[in-house]
Every structure is written in structure tokens, then in C-alpha cells.
Specification:
By secondary structure, the chain is an alpha/beta fold. The chain has 8 helices and 8 strands, in the order ββαααβββαβαββααα. About 2% of the residues have low confidence.
Length: 444
């Protein structure tokens, strides 16, 4: 329900969702019409201003051209006056020339008048064209505005039809729900007094086989016969998708005759039901109960007891099928997420394996690299030692070359003169040998 305050009297009143939507639609449509009228008025004003500006511009152009022609005409008149004065001064000698000039003057005036008339025609044509163009644009704007108004009216009619259809569907669903509630209320009354041939467990089992089994043929819904843990529930419901169980419910059915002396409460069975749920590894626990028939809490609908026990609900038999449907739909939405989670987990495992392989490869590579680096360093050291030895040999060879070069220089500088310097005996011997040699060479 919505609260609305009257702007005049200040009183507050409440309306339902349908009336509120109708009022909002009326306000929205009124605002839309006002906006359309305002836009149309703005377009019309803009078009009028545009036409006035165009006409003013054309008028200014025409006046400017007319002034230019008038100035030119005035200038021509001055020239004519000058010519007349000259003709008066030279009347006899220039009569023929004057007639010729007068003829030219008349032709020029006619030409100027023709040009002025042509200019006026052009201006008039341009003004008419602009008016026609503006008129066409205005008609186009009016057509578009009409289309918008028609479209708004059509949408408003469609909205009204949809509103009526939704309202009819809602009323029909409300009638069906009320009929179902009346049916289950009648069934509850009959069950509390008539338990001949049919118990609450048989009723729920029949409802499941009739309504759920056709749409979920592979679902598991059987009585809980395993009491190895000390207790057992009434029914267990399970369903899976592609081998993955996505929902499981432990059901407990409780009912008692109206003539029973000791009346039980739903609270008395919640702890045992939660224990049975955990024992049988079920996700949800549901108590289907006809106990406390006058309790407004349990007669209203599905009662969530998750604040007391995890994922636990207490329902009347008429909500047995709706609760299963709701829980199944909610769980199915999580199936895709679970599959994606499994895929992500598998991808994480693959990434972890890849990282482990990468770490192993890095360790082996590091070990090989250390050994290769050590051998490389040894080889570099040996090369450095060899280079040092070769450098020593090179230095020795360079020293020998230098000594040999000095010896060669000494040999080149060695002469008989230097050898016999300070040694007269050897000088005399060499002189004698030179003279004997010269005599031997002289012919007899």
C-alpha cells in the first residue's frame, strides 16, 4: 500500500499498487502532453524567429542594393548635369555629341531600371522560396508532433490494456490461491478428524507422486528406514544434475487427533529433526505439521526456523509442494555456479601442477646452470692463465726482437775506419792490403 498526501486539505490516504500505478500514469501522461505542447510552442517560436530573421536579412540586402543603385543613379545624374553644362557651353559645336550622350543616358537609365526591377524580382522570389521552405518545415514539425501525440496515445492505450490484463491475471491467480487455501483448510479439518485409510505421510507421498514426480522423474523421495543412528525421519528427498547432488531435504510429518489429551508443539520436534538431517547428510530440514492448528504463525505460510536450526522450515501440508518447488528452483540456480566452481578448482589444480612442474624445471635448470657456470668459470680461468703465459712469451719475443734490432744497428754501424781507429797497426795492415788489391786490378 502507498500513502498519498492531499496538497489542498493535507489529509493522508492509502491506495493499493494498481491505483497508485494509475495515478502515476495519469501524472506522467499529463506531464508528457505538457512537454509535447511546450516543445511544439518552442519549435513554432523558433521557426517564426527564423522567418523574421530571414526576412529582415533579405530586406537589409535589398535596401543595401537599392542604396547602391541610388548612389550609382545619383552619380549618373551628376554626370548628366556636367554633360548638360558642357553642352550648354558648346551648344552648336556639340549638338550631335549631346544627342548621342542623351541617347546613351536614356539607355543607361533604362538598363538601370531593368536591373533594379530584376533585383526586386529576385528578392521577391527568394522571400517566397524562404516562406515556402519555412512553411514546409513547419508542416513537417506539425506532422512529427502529431505522430508523437498519436504514439503517446497508442502507448497509453497499450499500457491501459496491459494494466487491465495484469489486473485480471492477478485477480484470477488470487481466486485460485484462495480456492487452494480453502481446499487445504477443509482438508486440514477433515484430516484432524478423519484418518481412516489416509495419514499425513500418505497424503504428502501422494502429492509428491502426483505433482512432482512427472516433472522430476529421477528425483529420490523415499521413507527413511535407516535407524542405525538411534532415530530416523519420515521422508528423504534428493535430486542431482549430471551426477552432482544439488538438493536434499529431510521431512518429518506430525499430526494428532483433536481428541488427543496431551497436545504437542512444533518446537518439540525441531531438535530431533535437525539431528536426523545432520545424521543423514541432508541440506534442508522440513517439518510438515498439523500441530497447533490455531497458531497464526504456522497458518500464515512457510515459517523459517533458521534462527534456531540451520536451514529448517515448518509448514502446513498445503505448502508441501510449493516449498519443494521453491527450494529446487533456488538450488538449480546454484548448479551452474557449482559447476563453474568445480571447473575453477580443476583449473587451480592444473595451475598448481604447472607451477610445481615449473619449480622443478627451475630447480633442475638452476642446478645445471650452476654446474655449467662453474665449468665455464674454470675454462675462463684456464684461458686467463694461458693468456698470461702467452703474454710472457710475447714479452720475451719482443725483448729478443729489440736486442736483435740493436745488434743489427751495431752491425750496420761497424766500418773499417771505426775498427782501426786508435789501432795504427791494423790501419797499416788494411792500407797495405788495399794497395795490393788496387795494384792487382791495374792492367800491365
Amino acid at each position: 500500500m502507498k500513502e498519498i498526501k492531499c496538497p489542498k486539505c493535507g489529509s493522508i490516504f492509502t491506495v493499493d499498487e494498481a491505483d497508485y500505478a494509475a495515478i502515476a500514469s495519469q501524472v506522467k501522461n499529463a506531464e508528457f502532453r505538457a512537454e509535447v505542447e511546450r516543445r511544439a510552442s518552442e519549435l513554432e517560436n523558433q521557426q517564426q524567429l527564423k522567418q523574421e530573421a530571414q526576412q529582415l536579412r533579405l530586406k537589409n540586402d535589398f535596401e543595401r542594393q537599392l542604396n547602391a543603385k541610388n548612389n550609382e543613379l545619383e552619380q549618373r545624374k551628376n554626370e548628366i548635369a556636367t554633360l548638360k553644362q558642357q553642352m550648354l557651353n558648346n551648344a552648336q559645336a556639340q549638338q550631335i555629341e549631346q544627342d548621342k550622350l542623351l541617347a546613351q543616358k536614356d539607355a543607361l537609365i533604362a538598363s538601370l531600371q531593368t536591373k533594379v526591377a530584376q533585383s526586386e524580382n529576385l528578392v521577391t522570389v527568394a522571400v517566397l522560396e524562404e516562406k515556402n521552405k519555412a512553411k514546409d518545415e513547419l508542416q513537417e514539425r506539425e506532422r512529427k508532433i502529431a505522430e508523437l501525440v498519436n504514439r503517446a496515445a497508442s502507448e497509453r492505450n497499450e499500457a491501459n490494456l496491459r494494466e487491465q490484463s495484469i489486473k485480471q491475471n492477478y485477480e484470477q491467480q488470487l481466486r485460485q490461491k484462495q480456492e487452494m487455501v480453502d481446499y487445504y483448510k477443509d482438508m486440514k479439518t477433515r484430516l484432524s478428524t478423519k484418518m481412516v485409510g489416509e495419514t499425513l505421510e500418505i497424503h504428502c507421498s501422494t502429492q509428491f507422486s502426483t505433482l512432482i514426480r512427472p516433472i522430476m522423474p529421477s528425483a529420490y523421495f523415499e521413507k527413511d528406514n535407516d535407524a542405525s543412528g538411534g532415530s530416523k525421519g519420515d521422508f528423504i528427498f534428493r535430486d542431482s544434475d549430471n551426477g552432482m547432488e544439488y538438493i536434499s531435504i529431510m521431512f518429518e510429518m506430525k499430526n494428532e487427533m483433536d481428541t488427543t489429551a496431551t497436545k504437542h508443539h512444533n518446537e518439540d520436534f525441531l531438535k530431533k529433526l535437525d539431528s536426523d538431517r545432520r545424521e543423514k547428510n541432508c541440506e534442508y530440514a522440513v517439518l510438515v505439521s498439523l500441530l497447533e492448528p490455531d497458531s497464526e504463525l504456522y497458518n500464515t505460510g512457510i515459517v523459517d526456523m533458521s534462527h534456531r536450526y540451520e536451514k529448517m522450515y515448518v509448514i502446513r501440508p498445503q505448502f508441501f509442494i510449493p516449498l519443494i518447488t521453491l527450494l529446487v528452483q533456488a538450488a538449480k540456480k546454484n548448479v551452474a555456479l557449482k559447476h563453474e566452481l568445480d571447473i575453477t578448482r580443476n583449473q587451480n589444480v592444473d595451475v598448481t601442477n604447472f607451477e610445481n612442474k615449473l619449480l622443478k624445471f627451475k630447480e633442475k635448470f638452476g642446478s645445471h646452470y650452476e654446474r655449467a657456470s662453474k665449468k665455464f668459470d674454470d675454462a675462463i680461468k684456464q684461458i686467463d692463465d694461458t693468456i698470461a703465459k702467452l703474454q710472457k712469451v710475447k714479452d720475451s719475443l719482443l725483448g729478443s726482437e729489440r736486442n736483435l734490432r740493436l745488434a743489427n744497428q751495431d752491425t750496420d754501424a761497424l766500418t773499417i775506419k771505426r775498427l782501426t781507429r786508435g789501432n795504427p797497426t791494423m790501419k797499416e795492415k788494411f792500407d797495405q792490403a788495399r794497395k795490393a788489391n788496387d795494384n792487382a786490378d791495374t792492367p800491365q
